[in-house]
């Protein structure tokens, strides 16, 4: 299992609170049986409305891997299509003021860390990226910092369990769950309702 | 840390162990799947060569992409056809029960599981769909999951989870005439915010919820997620048991007695401890409508669109975005706002009692000129029952279209969509930008009775004017 300790790359800002999963990937693109190709449609409706002004359309941000967002990002549906679309566009980690719970969990399951920072820090990071898009940022889950230049270092946080699972390479829960199958059967045998009807 | 709540008890009962990550491995008693979030999960199973050890604990149906007019196969939308076929194949390969279109048991996943008696108190229930919180109405711990987690449940019947905090939301008293369960939850979200519930399970308690029917409780629990809470529940009581008894998958005979005995033990204790408690008074709740682009942007039907100054600092930016997107001005009364499309349906308000209530107001009236109004039953069973009562006639005589079961224009993955910047009066649960199929389409959320009022007037109207 791959450990995720450090992610380096250019940043891309996306401002606004409460950006929901319908905006991240409009429902019409959920008519599919694989996640392939979703990256092309990330934020499609917002992008169309902004006529090339959306950061995902701007030349300077192409190839960026750290997405910097504001509060309650990813609220709405549980669809993993949303983080999959962002990830398949090229994003490997997210920094924000806060994330919706299911979105955060989906990202963990995909091996994409979401860290939070103080509101002012997020905003200054967004400004710094807009001023210097070529800046390389490094998110370090060991020190829990994001570093750009010397003047630009911000502290970030993440629930300890999730952080540890990235560090130890245990973020993909499936394997661990499956190995416990005897304990699972044992638990099942004690649930009264499994034998009804 | 909560103690002695239903959430604590159900969590404890389903705990398999602690994972190396520190998370709890939690057994999932009932797993529901549909065509949108499951195909990739099955693909992941194949990739890893995993099997499904408890196929009988999963139920599949098709709801999001089904057309509600012509359901002949193959569907005219080739992508929709591809999705339903993938589900048919996956269910066949892994031995999973599938309530397909025409089976008499198909419908929105959150409507059919309760209807068939599959949803029961004390269970853990997961589905790759955020409105899984609906099933909490029965005193189950039910939550939405992503596709990787659908894979986890298929492969192990368990999930890696962190325990939630528990907030008790008490509403006491008698709702005023014309005020419904939908208004109660819109009011709660308006007051606590769309992020208010993050990290919490909501326990709905107090005399107002105790008096509600199961279908009303489902409407409330359904929208817990809109308030940021992963799940919401009501403690099971006689109303719950009466609803379940006799349904297809309900325990029978001696097992019924055992079940009720067990269900009674899982209710929150009288001296249970909560992480937070909030109290509302039923009489204070008006018919509530959203005017903006998040379900928290709700106001009473008598009120005006809030001005930025009247809002807390943190809500102003999203309000500005909403004025512009919704083409509504601060200070303007919401009543009288012109609507184009009226939609009754969804897992929030597409059940028989919702249709009955709506039909009561549609009876003998006519949909205003130029308004497209349609009713989509939540399941084939709801449709059958509604037709047996003649509700379809009431609707069609009033000028509503009467459709087949599905999610329809709740999120418009099928042909039912808003066009351009059309504005809808909708009994569904989300008013996000672009939610109903057009990237500039606008949504006003409200109760089914209020949707009928809007359809008849052609504008947002107060249903209480029809009630003496
Ligand atoms: S009715 Fe709407 S909210 Fe409910 S499951 Fe279908 S799409 Fe989702």
Structure description:
The complex is a heterodimer of chains A (197) and B (468). In chain A, 34% of the residues lie in helices and 15% in strands. Chain A has 197 residues and is of the alpha/beta class. Chain A has a single domain (6-189), classed as Aconitase, domain 4, CATH 3.20.19.10. A 7-stranded mixed sheet of chain A has the order 4-3-2-1-5-6-7. The longest helix of chain A has 13 residues, at 119-131. Chain A is globular. By secondary structure, chain B is α/β, with parallel strands linked by helices. Chain B is 32% helix and 17% strand. Chain B contains 16 helices and 19 strands. Chain B has helices spanning 6-13, 39-48, 78-94, 109-115, 147-156, 181-192, 207-211, 214-222, 238-244, 253-266, 316-326, 346-349, 352-362, 380-388, 391-398, 448-457; strands at 15-18, 24-27, 30-33, 58-61, 97-99, 124-127, 141-144, 158-161, 165-172, 200-205, 231-233, 276-281, 288-290, 298-300, 341-344, 372-375, 401-402, 423-426, 442-445. In chain B, the strands form 5 sheets. Chain B has a 5-stranded parallel sheet. In chain B, strands 17-16-15-18-19 form a 5-stranded parallel sheet. Chain B has a 4-stranded parallel sheet with strand order 11-10-9-12. In chain B, helix 6 packs parallel to helix 8. Chains A and B meet through helix 2, helix 3, helix 4, helix 6 and helix 7 of A and strand 1, helix 2, helix 3, helix 5 and strand 8 of B. Bound molecules: iron/sulfur cluster (SF4). Iron/sulfur cluster binds at residues 63-64, 108, 110, 129, 131, 346-347, 407, 410-411, 428-429 of chain B. Iron/sulfur cluster (SF4) binds next to helix 12 of chain B.
């Amino acid at each position: 299992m791959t450990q995720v300790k450090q992610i380096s790359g250019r940043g891309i800002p996306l401002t606004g609170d409460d950006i929901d999963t319908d905006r991240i990937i409009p429902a019409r693109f959920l008519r599919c049986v694989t996640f392939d190709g979703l990256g092309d449609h990330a934020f499609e409706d917002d992008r169309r409305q902004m006529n090339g002004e959306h950061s995902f359309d701007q030349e300077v941000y192409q190839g960026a891997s750290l997405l910097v967002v504001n509060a309650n990002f990813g609220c709405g549906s549980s669809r993993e299509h949303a983080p999959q679309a962002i990830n398949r566009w090229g994003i490997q980690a997210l920094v924000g003021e806060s994330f919706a719970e299911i979105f955060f969990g989906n990202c963990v399951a995909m091996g994409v860390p979401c860290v939070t920072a103080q509101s002012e820090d997020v905003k200054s990071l967004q400004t710094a990226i807009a001023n210097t898009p070529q800046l390389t940022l490094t998110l370090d889950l060991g020190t829990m910092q994001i570093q750009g230049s010397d003047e630009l270092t911000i502290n970030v946080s993440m629930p300890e369990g999730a952080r540890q699972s990235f560090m130890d390479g245990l973020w993909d829960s499936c394997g661990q769950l499956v190995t416990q199958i005897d304990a699972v059967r044992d638990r099942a045998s004690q649930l009264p309702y499994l034998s009804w009807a | 840390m909560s103690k002695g709540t239903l959430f604590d008890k159900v969590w404890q009962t389903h705990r398999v162990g602690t994972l190396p990550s520190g998370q709890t491995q939690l057994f999932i008693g009932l797993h529901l799947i549909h065509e949108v979030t499951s195909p990739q999960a099955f693909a992941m199973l194949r990739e890893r060569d995993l099997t499904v050890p408890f196929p009988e604990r999963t139920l599949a149906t098709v709801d999001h992409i089904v057309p509600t007019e012509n359901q002949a196969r193959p569907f005219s939308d080739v992508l929709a056809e591809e999705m339903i076929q993938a589900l048919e194949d996956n269910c066949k390969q892994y031995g999973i029960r599938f309530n397909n279109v025409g089976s008499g048991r198909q419908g929105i996943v959150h409507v059919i599981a309760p209807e068939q008696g599959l949803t029961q108190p004390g269970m853990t229930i997961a589905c790759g769909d955020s409105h899984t919180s609906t099933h909490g109405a029965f005193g189950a711990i039910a939550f939405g999951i992503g596709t990787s987690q659908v894979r986890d449940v298929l492969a192990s019947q368990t999930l890696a989870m962190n325990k939630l905090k528990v907030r008790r939301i008490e509403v006491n008293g008698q709702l005023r005439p014309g005020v419904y369960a939908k208004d109660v939850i819109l009011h709660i979200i308006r007051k606590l915010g769309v992020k208010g519930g993050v990290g919490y399970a909501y326990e709905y308690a107090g005399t107002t919820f105790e008096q509600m029917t199961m279908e009303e409780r489902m409407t409330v629990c359904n929208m817990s997620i809109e308030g940021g809470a992963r799940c919401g529940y009501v403690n099971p009581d006689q109303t719950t048991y009466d609803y379940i008894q006799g349904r297809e998958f309900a325990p029978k005979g001696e097992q019924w007695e055992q079940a009720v005995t067990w269900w009674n033990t899982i209710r929150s204790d009288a001296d249970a401890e909560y992480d937070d408690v909030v109290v509302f008074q039923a009489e204070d709740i008006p018919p509530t409508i959203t005017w903006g682009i998040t379900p928290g942007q709700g106001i009473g039907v008598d009120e005006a669109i809030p001005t930025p100054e009247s809002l807390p600092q943190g809500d102003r930016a999203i309000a500005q975005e909403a004025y512009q997107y919704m083409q509504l001005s601060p200070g303007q009364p919401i009543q009288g706002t012109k609507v184009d499309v009226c939609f009754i349906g969804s897992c929030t308000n597409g059940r028989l009692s919702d249709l009955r209530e709506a039909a009561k107001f549609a009876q003998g009236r006519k949909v205003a000129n130029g308004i497209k109004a349609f009713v989509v039953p939540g399941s084939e069973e709801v449709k059958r029952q509604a037709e047996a009562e003649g509700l379809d006639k009431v609707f069609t005589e009033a000028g509503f279209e009467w459709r087949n079961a599905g999610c329809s224009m709740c999120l418009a993955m099928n042909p039912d969509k808003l066009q351009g910047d059309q504005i809808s009066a909708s009994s569904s649960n989300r008013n996000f930008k672009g939610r109903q199929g057009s990237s500039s389409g606008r949504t006003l959320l409200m109760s089914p009775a209020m949707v009928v009022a809007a359809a008849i007037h052609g504008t947002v109207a107060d249903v209480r004017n029809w009630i003496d």
